[in-house]
Design a protein that fits this description.
Length: 536
């Protein structure tokens, strides 16, 4: 969606949107092989109509897409109607990949004569990030003196987006509409203004830069800061403190809303031919009804009791051993471990919402969107000492998780098309483990240790969803990763921070493992569960 939105905005800014009569979208590699299951075509169509992931009404997507297939009309950027036949103009290249990245797509715009007007290639590198060059106008309609330039509308004082995370062609200096230049002289002036704006934006750097876990720990030690404080200080280079806090809290609001939406859904099944039942609503009802009584815990996160153990449990009772062929003794059925059930509930809710096309936070990706919210929600409901501290802990949790995510993006990848699921759910587990350790009062060394443990035991995780649907194994896998993150944190907190395997070493291992992994296990649905789970 983001890539398509960027392209149509580029068409608009270059002055060729109104002359566009046809559009063609080519999806390559992993995007083609799992695109239908991942909802990629729908997202592309929404982006071409000018929608954004943050602003689109998710409930309107399916009716609008159905209308496009029926009426063959697409409203480019929300205002310019063209004929668009999805089955003809949205093309899947199942056996072809663009050389730069397995998640590649190409957008092409044509005029009424069928001549190419503009084209660009985009690459989805995970986490909602897209990489692209500047959209190119075709030679037959490109005239330098009349080239539409964005520089006249550039605010050279705006530096609220870090250039390191803004792909080429989408930095603040490329935003906004403009009018065609009046000649070569004015074009030269606008080019100079554009260059000056870009230069100013790119000269802003992080106040406390780090490139790997080792350098991050050194910064924390030198500055006597937590990992979250380092990230916060760096963000102040581009945004005010109030904006950083507001944006971070808004991320949590979206995460929490996805949990609530998943819990309250009245749909019995998730979309798709797999016919997988939603489990979050039923699990939530059982927990709230008091069926989570176990070991003295209450049925809700409110008020726990002490756990009582009997010394008699350690003493074997004479004659209690059954004969080899006797019926096994009956015992009360205990189906609930309260902490595990609540964590699992939260993760299931988010990923069921994702599978149903609802809004989630890419944390770090949509397929791994449930792990971090689940662990944070668990902390806030079960552990956070007071409501007055919640906002502070939310910010610390998410900024710590962000720092760990940065390390994986820089040292490896968070794209399942490159790394398999270790690059998505594995990274989410690592991020959540680190963040949970931070809000539990761990040292920076313990935080790094928890992140390492979280990934070490996800190495080699494959991405092999049947039919490309983010259902199996994605939904359950997020629940398990959330529980594993808490376990990793506890292991780290019960140590002194020293450990044999470092986070940098495990990130390097993840990258090497991903490079060695066969492509059929990297988000192509051509191996593993994808070929062994019958679809009926």
């Amino acid at each position: 969606m983001r890539a398509a939105k960027i392209f149509v905005e580029n068409l608009d800014g270059l002055g060729v949107l109104e002359t566009t009569s046809q559009m063609r979208v080519d999806l390559y590699g992993s995007l083609a092989l799992t695109g239908a299951g991942h909802g990629t075509p729908n997202a592309v169509l929404m982006g071409l109509e000018g929608e954004t992931p943050e602003g689109v009404d998710t409930k309107s997507i399916l009716p609008r897409v159905e209308s496009m297939y029926t009426n063959k009309i697409l409203n480019l950027n929300g205002r310019h109607a063209i004929t668009f036949i999805p089955d003809k103009h949205l093309i899947f290249h199942f056996r072809e990949s663009l050389p730069q990245h397995p998640n590649g797509m190409r957008f092409s715009a044509y005029d009424n004569n069928g001549d190419l007007i503009a084209t660009n290639e985009f690459f989805s590198i995970g986490g909602g990030f897209v990489v692209n060059e500047e959209t190119q106008l075709a030679d037959n309609v490109y005239y330098k003196d009349n080239r539409v330039d964005h520089a006249d509308k550039v605010d050279t004082s705006r530096t609220d987006v870090p250039p390191s995370i803004v792909p080429t062609g989408t930095e603040p200096s490329a935003a906004g509409a403009s009018q065609p230049g009046s000649g070569a002289a004015s074009n030269d002036v606008s080019q100079s203004a554009l260059l000056a704006a870009k230069t100013k934006s790119q000269t802003i750097t992080a106040a406390l830069p780090f490139t790997d876990a080792e350098s991050l720990l050194r910064v924390c030690e030198r500055e006597n800061m937590s990992i979250a404080q380092v990230v916060f200080r760096n963000e102040l280079q581009w945004r005010s403190a109030e904006e950083v806090i507001a944006r971070t809290l808004n991320l949590w609001n979206v995460m929490n809303a996805s949990i609530q939406n998943g819990i309250s859904s009245e749909d019995e099944y998730l979309p798709g031919q797999l016919r997988v039942r939603r489990r979050a609503p039923g699990l939530h009802r059982r927990l709230m009804a008091g069926l989570a009584e176990y070991a003295g815990f209450g049925s809700t996160p409110n008020g726990t009791q002490g756990v009582r153990f009997s010394a008699d449990l350690a003493k074997p009772k004479h004659g209690s051993v059954q004969p080899a062929h006797a019926a096994p003794p009956t015992r009360p059925s205990r189906r609930s471990l309260p902490a595990l059930d609540w964590i699992s509930l939260y993760a299931l809710a988010v990923n069921e919402e994702n599978a149903a096309g609802g809004r989630v936070v890419t944390a770090p990706t949509n397929g791994a969107a449930g792990t971090i919210p689940a662990v944070l929600k668990y902390y806030l409901e079960f552990i956070c000492p007071s409501r007055n501290q919640m906002e502070q802990d939310i910010v610390e949790f998410l900024l710590t998780a962000a720092a760990i995510g940065m390390l994986y993006k820089r040292g490896a990848s968070i794209s399942a098309a490159e790394m398999g699921c270790q690059g998505e759910v594995g990274v989410a587990c690592s991020m959540a483990a680190a963040a949970f350790t931070a809000v539990m009062g761990g040292t920076v060394e313990q935080v790094e240790n928890a992140a390492e443990i979280g990934m070490e035991h996800n190495l080699g995780l494959t991405c092999d969803p049947p039919m490309g649907l983010v259902v199996i194994p994605c939904i359950e896998r997020n629940a398990l990763a959330a529980v594993k993150a808490v376990t990793a944190s506890q292991l780290a907190l019960n140590g002194d921070g020293s450990h044999r395997v470092t986070l940098d070493q495990v990130i390097a291992t993840m990258r090497q493992t991903g490079m060695d992994m066969m492509s059929k296990y990297k988000e192509t649905s051509e191996g593993g569960l994808a070929v062994n789970v019958p679809v009926c």
